[in-house]
């Protein structure tokens, strides 16, 4: 990892229950939760889950919206989801995610082929929702 290139650091997702959301992302999606204990102890405002060594998803409680004062109107963003977040995975992790989501009863879309993304046309992709309604795309590319 180098500090002098542009990269995605984090995405903040609004969730009803950050601990339950962290558990979903750990058990159904396979992401590593961070700061959950600190959140439950009141030491941090929200927990996160690690996508990789460079990127996390922050799981902000909707009740935290009033504290979002970094720009005028920021507090109004609670409940205004982005269209979707895309996770790019190796082929075996893509397959394992689809199986894990099924084991957790999470509905998934059919598999698409050739959808365009940051690395060109994806080999396969599918969509699913987290318990708070955030939409995720999972995809993999042939390397």
TrEMBL record:
CDD domains: VOC. Residues 7-141 form the VOC domain. PANTHER family: GLYOXALASE DOMAIN-CONTAINING PROTEIN 5, GLYOXALASE FAMILY PROTEIN. This is VOC family protein. InterPro entries: Glyas_Bleomycin-R_OHBP_Dase (IPR029068), Glyas_Fos-R_dOase_dom (IPR004360), GlyoxalaseI/FosfomycinResist (IPR050383), VOC_core (IPR037523).
């Amino acid at each position: 990892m180098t500090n002098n290139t542009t990269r995605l650091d984090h995405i903040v997702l609004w969730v009803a229950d950050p601990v339950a959301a962290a558990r979903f992302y750990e058990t159904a999606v396979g992401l590593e939760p961070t700061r959950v204990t600190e959140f439950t102890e009141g030491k941090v405002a929200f927990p996160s889950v690690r996508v990789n060594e460079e990127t996390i998803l922050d799981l902000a409680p909707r009740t935290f919206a009033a504290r979002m004062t970094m720009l005028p109107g920021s507090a109004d963003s609670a409940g205004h989801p982005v269209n979707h977040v895309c996770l790019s995975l190796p082929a075996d992790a893509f397959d394992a995610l689809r199986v894990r989501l099924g084991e957790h009863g999470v509905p998934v879309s059919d598999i698409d082929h050739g959808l365009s993304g940051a690395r060109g046309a994806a080999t396969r992709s599918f969509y699913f929702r987290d318990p708070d309604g955030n939409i995720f795309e999972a995809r993999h590319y042939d390397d």
